[in-house]
Amino acid sequence: MTETSFDSAVAALYSSEHQASTAEALALTAQRRTQTIADMRIYLQRVGLLENGKSVLFQNKRLVHITGTKGKGSTACLCETILRQAYGLRTGLFTSPHLVDIRERIRVNGQPVSPEVFGKAYWTLRQMLEAPAGNEPNALPVLPGYFRMLTLMALYIFSHYEPSIDVIILEVGMGGRFDATNSLDLDTTWKSYACGITKLDYDHVRVLGHRLEQIAWEKAGIFLKNKLSPGTPRPPDDVGDEIDEASATKVPKSTSVKNDCKYFALDPKKASVQQVLEECALGEKLCFVAGSYERELPPDAPIGLAGNHQRDNAELAMALCQAVCDDKSVSSTDIHAAIAQAKWLGRCQTIVLEPKLNIRLDGAHTVESVHVGLEWFDQVAVPGAQRHLIFNCSHERNPVELLERFVPLGFHSVSFCKADSERPSAIQKPSAKALLQTWQSSIPKSEDSNGDDSPYSHLPDQPEATWQETLCNIWCALERELLPDSNKAVASGTMTLSASLDQIRQSLKEDEGASGEVLIAGSLYLVGSALSALCWKETDAEGTLIADESS
Ligand SMILES: Nc1ncnc2c1ncn2[C@@H]1O[C@H](COP(=O)(O)OP(=O)(O)OP(=O)(O)O)[C@@H](O)[C@H]1O
C-alpha cells in the first residue's frame, strides 16, 4: 500500500518534530507555556491566518470557546449538535483528545474531515512554516508542538477549505489562558461569541496550580475581555486567603439572567472560586448555570449522552448556544430534540456485545470524573451480573488514587491492558511501591497499626515490571488494605484486550447463565483501542468515521 499524505502527516505529528519526547524537550515546552499566545500569533502570521496582526477570515463567523476540567468535550459536542440541528448552522468543531482516529479532532458539520483534507492541511501549513522567515525570535521552534499544530490545522481548514462554516466551537486543550486555542481572537471581530467553563476539578495541577482558585484563573483567561488585558487580575498564589465559605451562596454580581451574557460557567459552588471567575470577567456579565440556579432543561428531557452529570453540561451548552445565536429564535422543542440526539463516544458508553455481555466504556481519568463514571456503572450494570474490570491509565496519573475507587465495586476479575496507541511521554514511571507508600502515608494510621513498617516493603523499588504489572501489584495491595475479608478479584497484569474478553467469556460459561458487565476505564487511549477492536467501522466512500453502536 502506498503511503498517503494523511499517513505521512500523522507519522510526522507523532514524531519528535512535533512531540516533546525527551526530558529536555519537555522542559523547554513547559518553559514556553506562558508564551503560547505570542508564539501562536507568530505561527498564525506565518500561515496567513493573521495579516499584520489582524485577521479578517473569521469576521462573519460565530465562536463558542469552552474550557473546564471535566465536561469540555461533552459540552462542545452538545453545542455542536444544538447549533447544527436546532439552529441550522454549519459547524466547525475542534476537540481533544481523539479516541481512534486523529481526524475526530477536526469535524465539519458533525463529520471528521477526510484523510485528504487532513493531509493537505498539514503539508500546506508545514511548507509555509518552513519557508524562510524574517526576524523572528530565535528560540521559537520552526515547527509548533503537536497541539499547537493541530489547532493551526483546524483554524486553517475552517477558514480556507470550509469558508461556509457559520460557527466554530473550540475546546481548550489544557487550562485556557495560555492555550493555543486562545490565540486568535485578540484582533478578530467575531460575528458573535460565547465562552463557557465546565466543571472545575484538580487535574494537571503541576502546571495549573494546586488550588481550585488557581485553576479557575487559568480557565477564565478565555473570557475575551480578560484576554485583552492579560495582566489583570493577578493570579491567585499557592496559599491564597480562604474566603468564608458560608458566603458561598451569596455570589456578589453574577447572575442567572442570561440576556446579553457572553461568559458562562457551571456553578463551582465555592465562593472563592466564584470570585476569581468574577474578577476575570473584568466587569462583564458572568452567568453561573446549573448548581442552585434555575434550570431550563426539564428533568425528564432525554440527553443523548449517558450519566447524571450530562444534565449540567446540557444546561451550559444551551446557554452558550442561545448567547451565540441571540439574533435567532429557535423553539425549546427543537433544542431538546437536538440534545436527545447528541453522541459522544467513549464516555459512559454502552456496547451490548452479546445478549448477556455488556461492555461499559468510560475514558474518565481524574479522581472526580472516575467517581462520576463509577456512579453511572453502578446504576446501569445488570443486578447480579459478574463484574469485570479492564483498566489502564497513563503513568502521568496516580493510579493508586484512581484504583482505590474501583476496588469496592466487587469485580470478579481485573485485567490491566495496554492501549494500542499512546503518545510518547518523557515522564518516568514511578514504582508500585513508591506510589503505595505515598498513598499509605496520606491516610490516617489505624489504632492497631504497628509503627512505620510499610506493608509494601516486599515490592521492588525500581521494578523491571511493565506498567501493567505495576498496576496489578497496586490493585492486589489495595484489595488487601481495603477489603481484607472479602473474596479477591483475579488480577492479571499483561493481558491483551481480546485475551481478557476471552477469559471473561470463559468465566461466564463456567458460571452457567451468568450475565457479564465489563467496565473498560481509566484511559481514553484504552477506550479508543476497545472501540476500534469492538465496533469501529470506516466507510470507504467519503472516509467518514462511524462507530457501529449496538445500543
Ligand atoms: N459536568 C461534569 N461533572 C463531573 N464529571 C464530568 C462532567 N462532565 C463529564 N464528566 C466526566 O469526565 C469524563 C470526560 O468527559 P468529557 O470528555 O466531556 O470531558 P473533558 O473535559 O473533555 O475531559 P477529557 O479531556 O479528559 O476527555 C466523563 O467520562 C465523565 O466521567
Automatic annotation (TrEMBL):
Segments of this protein annotated with the region Disordered: 443-462
Keyword Zinc on entry: no
Main enzyme class: ligase
Keywords: ATP-binding, Ligase, Magnesium, Metal-binding, Nucleotide-binding, One-carbon metabolism
Catalytic activity: (6S)-5,6,7,8-tetrahydrofolyl-(gamma-L-Glu)(n) + L-glutamate + ATP = (6S)-5,6,7,8-tetrahydrofolyl-(gamma-L-Glu)(n+1) + ADP + phosphate + H(+)
Pathway: Cofactor biosynthesis; tetrahydrofolylpolyglutamate biosynthesis
Domain of life (superkingdom): Eukaryota
Family: Belongs to the folylpolyglutamate synthase family.
Protein name: tetrahydrofolate synthase
Organism: Fistulifera solaris (Oleaginous diatom)
Higher taxonomy: Eukaryota, Sar, Stramenopiles, Ochrophyta, Bacillariophyta
